[in-house]
From TrEMBL:
The organism's taxonomic lineage, starting at the top: Archaea, Methanobacteriati, Methanobacteriota, Stenosarchaea group, Methanomicrobia
One GO term of the biological process aspect: GTP biosynthetic process
Protein name: Nucleoside diphosphate kinase
EC category: transferase
Species of the source: Methanosalsum zhilinae (strain DSM 4017 / NBRC 107636 / OCM 62 / WeN5) (Methanohalophilus zhilinae)
Protein's cellular compartments: Cytoplasm
Nucleoside diphosphate kinase-like domain segment(s): 1-138
Positions that bind ATP: K9, F57, R85, T91, R102, N112
Keywords: ATP-binding, Cytoplasm, Kinase, Magnesium, Metal-binding, Nucleotide metabolism, Nucleotide-binding, Phosphoprotein, Transferase
Function: Major role in the synthesis of nucleoside triphosphates other than ATP. The ATP gamma phosphate is transferred to the NDP beta phosphate via a ping-pong mechanism, using a phosphorylated active-site intermediate.
Designated gene of the protein: ndk
Protein family according to the UniProt entry: Belongs to the NDK family.
Length: 149
């Protein structure tokens, strides 16, 4: 099964959307194998968003993601990376379809509620930044027989 990193950003936490987002993930059939609420420190935020270091929005992105608590998850399931990106919706909420998290709850790119890894490489890197090796739980969900062939 594929794993991906998902974060409910500080705006999602402040707006009380954590339960809604987790519910959407679980209703889709994915399992959450690690979950933590914390304040991401500046060094961790810079490591997480390193690919944006030279972009003009980098400093404001770091200030935003460290401004309040966020919720980090490892989400597991078949095609978890691409499906989570679809569940989240387009990065710019103006382009996000209704029914997606960003399409339903976000207005501006700088406050777009959620993050999900965009590739297997990014997922491995982001999971290693936010979770230790022994922090995920391996278990079988009773409904897996109904989800997978």
């Amino acid at each position: 099964m594929e794993e991906t990193y998902v974060m409910v950003k500080p705006d999602g936490v402040q707006r009380g959307l954590v339960g809604e987002i987790i519910s959407r993930i679980e209703r889709r059939g994915f399992k959450i194998v690690a979950l933590r609420m914390n304040f991401i420190d500046e060094d961790t935020a810079k490591e997480h968003y390193a690919e944006h270091k030279e972009k003009p929005f980098f400093d404001s992105l770091i200030a935003y993601v460290t401004s309040g608590p966020s919720v980090s998850m490892i989400v597991q399931g078949k095609n978890a990376i691409s499906i989570m990106r679809t569940i989240n919706g387009a990065t710019n909420p103006v382009d996000a379809s209704p029914g997606t998290i960003r399409g339903d709850f976000a207005i501006e790119t700088g406050r777009n509620i959620v993050h999900a890894s965009d590739s297997q490489e990014a997922a491995r890197r982001e999971i290693s930044i936010h979770f230790g090796e022994k922090e995920s739980v391996d278990y079988r969900k009773i409904d897996e027989v109904c989800l997978y062939e």
